[in-house]
Amino acid sequence: MRIASWNVNSIKAHLGAVTSWLKEREPDVVCLQELKCVDEAFPREEIESLGYNIAVHGQKTYNGVAILSKHPIDEAKPRLPGDDKDEHARYIEATISTKDGAVRVASIYLPNGNPVSTDKFKYKLAWMDRLAAHASELLTLEEPLVLAGDFNVIPTTADAEFPEKWTDDALAQPETRARFRALAALGFTDALRATRDGKGLYTFWDYQAGAFQKNNGIRIDHLLLSPQAADRLQSVGIDKKVRAAEKPSDHVPIYADFRFATR
DNA sequence: ATGGTCGGGGTCCGA
């Protein structure tokens, strides 16, 4: 069972990159972020033709998340609980049925929060508090659960090639990092760090100033695993070469393989 | 070198 996450930075602009990658990597489940389209505009047929079921929570112009699955999708639920006035499409959760039991996945597009001096940063921190509250509820189910997405958090200085460039950024603030640690401390395993230490493991490179060519990258796309998912973890990969292609997203996919009967 | 690049939608905002 291969579960992946990718911030595609517009599903319409990068559909070719997405379908090529789906064919090559063959994930069972994919969490997508930054669709930048409404539900009706999601390129459903192109992705269904590759064998995927689809649950979308879209929005015009901004945000937008989806879950793709080769296995049946049950009870897809959009929206992160805790604020009925929050209109951003940043969260969708679903249960996936497999021959070896169910796995719950959430596709997460956590607010960027820049600039730090504005309400955008307050919104980010409040959103992280809501995520922790909801995740705490989900853990009581004692299911295999994967929180997958663009968390817009650089967890430590080891997660940036040039950490000093990010000291004033919302992605690296102490308040941001503390909330990410608190979320993990509820009982989640950071899948990538469970398998590899050290620097040089990045999922995002800015379009500006030749960031990719300089390897000025950061690790902000994460797979957080419940104990029941972590027990089944086999390996984790980052598809860095996707960033070197023509007209790429600024993020690359991250995926993890689990010991489920399906693979 | 105090900039730079994308995408969406509309002549700027968000990242």
Brief account:
With 263 residues, the chain is of the alpha+beta class.
Walk me through what this model shows.
This protein is α+β, with helices and mostly antiparallel strands and 263 residues long. It has a single domain, classed as Endonuclease/exonuclease/phosphatase (Deoxyribonuclease I, Chain A, 4-Layer Sandwich). Helices cover 22% and strands 27% of the residues. It has 6 helices and 14 strands. The strands form 3 sheets. It has a 6-stranded mixed β-sheet with strand order 3-4-2-1-14-13. Strand 7, helix 3 (119-139) and strand 8 (145-150) form a beta-alpha-beta unit. The mean pLDDT is 97. The chain binds one DNA strand of 15 nucleotides through residues 9-10, 12-14, 34, 36-37, 60-62, 112, 114, 120, 152, 206-211, 247, 249-250.
